[in-house]
Amino acid sequence: MATIGASGGQKPVSVFNPKNRTRTADRTTRPGRSPMAEGVFRSMTKSDPRVGRVDSAGTGAYHEGCPPDPRTMSVLEENGENGYDHLARKVRTSDFKDFDYVLAMDDDNLHNLTRLQRRIIKSCGTDAAPAKVMMFGDFGGQRGEEVVDPYYGARDGFTIAYEQMTRFSTGFIQQVLQDAAGV
Fold first, then answer.
1. Could you give phi then psi for residue 161, rounded to 5 degrees?
2. Considering only CA atoms, which of 39, 19, 41, 40 is closest in space to residue 30?
3. Rounded-to-5 percentages of helix, strand, coil across the chain
4. Pair 110, 76: CB distance under 8 Å
5. DSSP code, position 119
6. pLDDT digits (tens, 9 = 90+) for 12-29
7. Is the CB of residue 21 less than 8 Å from the CB of residue 62?
8. H or E stretch at 101
Protein backbone atom coordinates (compact mmCIF):
# COMPACT_ATOMS: atom_id res chain seq x y z
CA MET A 1 0.00 0.00 0.00
CA ALA A 2 1.16 3.47 -0.42
CA THR A 3 0.05 5.81 2.14
CA ILE A 4 0.67 9.36 1.46
CA GLY A 5 -0.30 11.11 4.55
CA ALA A 6 -0.83 14.66 5.25
CA SER A 7 -0.99 17.87 3.44
CA GLY A 8 -1.24 21.22 5.11
CA GLY A 9 1.41 20.28 7.63
CA GLN A 10 -1.25 19.15 10.08
CA LYS A 11 -0.76 15.42 9.70
CA PRO A 12 2.12 13.40 8.26
CA VAL A 13 2.22 12.37 4.64
CA SER A 14 2.65 8.67 4.31
CA VAL A 15 3.27 6.43 1.37
CA PHE A 16 2.17 2.86 2.00
CA ASN A 17 2.05 -0.25 -0.08
CA PRO A 18 -0.67 -2.07 1.82
CA LYS A 19 0.85 -5.43 1.28
CA ASN A 20 4.41 -6.28 0.51
CA ARG A 21 3.44 -9.35 -1.46
CA THR A 22 2.51 -10.26 -4.97
CA ARG A 23 -1.06 -10.60 -6.16
CA THR A 24 -0.70 -14.34 -5.72
CA ALA A 25 -1.74 -14.85 -2.13
CA ASP A 26 0.61 -17.73 -1.39
CA ARG A 27 3.82 -15.97 -2.46
CA THR A 28 5.53 -13.08 -0.70
CA THR A 29 8.13 -10.56 -1.79
CA ARG A 30 10.64 -8.25 -0.20
CA PRO A 31 9.50 -4.68 0.23
CA GLY A 32 9.92 -2.81 -3.06
CA ARG A 33 7.05 -0.67 -4.34
CA SER A 34 6.02 1.18 -1.20
CA PRO A 35 9.53 2.07 -0.03
CA MET A 36 10.27 3.32 -3.55
CA ALA A 37 7.12 5.48 -3.43
CA GLU A 38 8.14 6.75 -0.01
CA GLY A 39 11.67 7.57 -1.18
CA VAL A 40 10.50 9.41 -4.29
CA PHE A 41 7.78 11.37 -2.49
CA ARG A 42 10.11 12.30 0.38
CA SER A 43 12.69 13.58 -2.06
CA MET A 44 10.13 15.63 -4.00
CA THR A 45 8.61 17.19 -0.86
CA LYS A 46 11.54 17.41 1.56
CA SER A 47 11.41 21.20 1.77
CA ASP A 48 7.62 21.52 1.43
CA PRO A 49 6.13 22.83 4.70
CA ARG A 50 2.72 21.39 3.75
CA VAL A 51 4.08 17.86 4.15
CA GLY A 52 4.68 16.54 7.64
CA ARG A 53 5.91 12.95 7.43
CA VAL A 54 6.15 10.44 4.61
CA ASP A 55 6.00 6.75 5.49
CA SER A 56 5.33 3.34 3.96
CA ALA A 57 3.96 0.05 5.24
CA GLY A 58 2.53 -3.25 4.06
CA THR A 59 -0.77 -4.98 4.73
CA GLY A 60 1.17 -8.07 5.73
CA ALA A 61 4.04 -8.46 8.16
CA TYR A 62 5.95 -10.79 5.85
CA HIS A 63 9.22 -8.87 5.95
CA GLU A 64 8.73 -6.64 8.96
CA GLY A 65 12.06 -5.11 9.97
CA CYS A 66 13.72 -5.88 6.62
CA PRO A 67 15.26 -3.25 4.32
CA PRO A 68 13.88 -2.68 0.80
CA ASP A 69 14.80 -4.89 -2.11
CA PRO A 70 18.36 -4.04 -3.25
CA ARG A 71 17.03 -3.25 -6.75
CA THR A 72 14.71 -0.63 -5.25
CA MET A 73 17.65 0.97 -3.49
CA SER A 74 19.88 0.94 -6.57
CA VAL A 75 17.20 2.58 -8.75
CA LEU A 76 16.62 5.24 -6.08
CA GLU A 77 20.37 5.90 -5.84
CA GLU A 78 20.76 6.07 -9.63
CA ASN A 79 18.13 8.80 -9.62
CA GLY A 80 19.79 10.86 -6.91
CA GLU A 81 17.68 9.57 -4.02
CA ASN A 82 20.59 9.00 -1.65
CA GLY A 83 20.47 8.44 2.08
CA TYR A 84 17.06 6.76 2.08
CA ASP A 85 16.67 4.45 5.06
CA HIS A 86 13.65 2.21 5.63
CA LEU A 87 12.64 -0.97 7.43
CA ALA A 88 9.39 -2.70 6.49
CA ARG A 89 6.44 -2.52 8.86
CA LYS A 90 2.83 -3.55 8.78
CA VAL A 91 0.10 -0.94 8.44
CA ARG A 92 -1.44 0.00 11.80
CA THR A 93 -4.98 1.03 12.57
CA SER A 94 -3.61 4.35 13.81
CA ASP A 95 -2.31 5.09 10.29
CA PHE A 96 -5.89 5.81 9.23
CA LYS A 97 -6.06 8.57 11.82
CA ASP A 98 -2.47 9.79 11.66
CA PHE A 99 -2.38 10.30 7.88
CA ASP A 100 -4.60 12.32 5.58
CA TYR A 101 -4.09 9.94 2.65
CA VAL A 102 -3.56 6.20 2.47
CA LEU A 103 -2.61 5.34 -1.09
CA ALA A 104 -2.81 1.82 -2.50
CA MET A 105 -0.44 0.45 -5.13
CA ASP A 106 -2.99 -1.88 -6.75
CA ASP A 107 -6.62 -3.02 -6.62
CA ASP A 108 -5.90 -5.77 -4.08
CA ASN A 109 -4.22 -3.24 -1.81
CA LEU A 110 -7.12 -0.83 -2.20
CA HIS A 111 -9.62 -3.56 -1.31
CA ASN A 112 -7.65 -4.60 1.79
CA LEU A 113 -7.19 -1.03 2.96
CA THR A 114 -10.80 0.00 2.53
CA ARG A 115 -11.93 -3.17 4.28
CA LEU A 116 -9.60 -2.43 7.21
CA GLN A 117 -10.79 1.18 7.35
CA ARG A 118 -14.45 0.04 7.41
CA ARG A 119 -13.70 -2.32 10.33
CA ILE A 120 -12.00 0.49 12.25
CA ILE A 121 -14.93 2.84 11.64
CA LYS A 122 -17.45 0.15 12.61
CA SER A 123 -15.72 -0.56 15.92
CA CYS A 124 -14.41 2.91 16.83
CA GLY A 125 -16.38 5.49 14.84
CA THR A 126 -15.52 7.74 11.92
CA ASP A 127 -13.11 9.88 13.94
CA ALA A 128 -10.82 6.85 14.28
CA ALA A 129 -10.13 6.57 10.53
CA PRO A 130 -10.67 9.83 8.61
CA ALA A 131 -7.88 9.22 6.04
CA LYS A 132 -8.75 9.26 2.36
CA VAL A 133 -7.99 5.78 0.97
CA MET A 134 -7.23 5.99 -2.75
CA MET A 135 -5.19 4.45 -5.55
CA PHE A 136 -1.80 6.14 -5.90
CA GLY A 137 -2.14 5.66 -9.66
CA ASP A 138 -5.19 7.96 -9.70
CA PHE A 139 -2.67 10.81 -9.58
CA GLY A 140 -0.78 9.64 -12.67
CA GLY A 141 -3.22 10.67 -15.36
CA GLN A 142 -5.02 7.31 -15.74
CA ARG A 143 -7.67 6.63 -13.12
CA GLY A 144 -7.06 3.30 -11.38
CA GLU A 145 -3.56 2.79 -12.80
CA GLU A 146 -1.75 0.15 -10.76
CA VAL A 147 1.91 0.28 -9.80
CA VAL A 148 3.80 -2.47 -11.56
CA ASP A 149 5.07 -5.08 -9.08
CA PRO A 150 8.63 -5.57 -10.32
CA TYR A 151 9.76 -8.22 -7.84
CA TYR A 152 9.75 -11.33 -10.05
CA GLY A 153 10.89 -9.56 -13.19
CA ALA A 154 14.15 -8.08 -14.37
CA ARG A 155 15.67 -4.93 -12.96
CA ASP A 156 13.99 -2.79 -15.61
CA GLY A 157 10.69 -3.39 -13.79
CA PHE A 158 12.07 -1.32 -10.90
CA THR A 159 12.92 1.45 -13.35
CA ILE A 160 9.34 1.36 -14.66
CA ALA A 161 8.01 1.47 -11.07
CA TYR A 162 10.29 4.45 -10.35
CA GLU A 163 8.85 6.30 -13.36
CA GLN A 164 5.35 5.60 -12.09
CA MET A 165 6.20 6.79 -8.57
CA THR A 166 7.64 10.01 -9.96
CA ARG A 167 4.58 10.63 -12.14
CA PHE A 168 2.12 9.77 -9.35
CA SER A 169 3.97 11.92 -6.79
CA THR A 170 4.02 14.86 -9.21
CA GLY A 171 0.30 14.43 -9.80
CA PHE A 172 -0.41 14.23 -6.08
CA ILE A 173 1.57 17.42 -5.45
CA GLN A 174 -0.29 19.21 -8.25
CA GLN A 175 -3.78 17.89 -7.51
CA VAL A 176 -3.78 17.81 -3.72
CA LEU A 177 -1.08 20.02 -2.25
CA GLN A 178 -1.26 22.88 -4.73
CA ASP A 179 -5.06 22.81 -4.96
CA ALA A 180 -5.34 22.83 -1.16
CA ALA A 181 -3.03 25.83 -1.02
CA GLY A 182 -4.90 27.61 -3.82
CA VAL A 183 -1.76 27.67 -5.98
1. -60, -40
2. 19
3. 40, 5, 50
4. no
5. H
6. 444 444 332 222 222 234
7. yes
8. strand 101-104
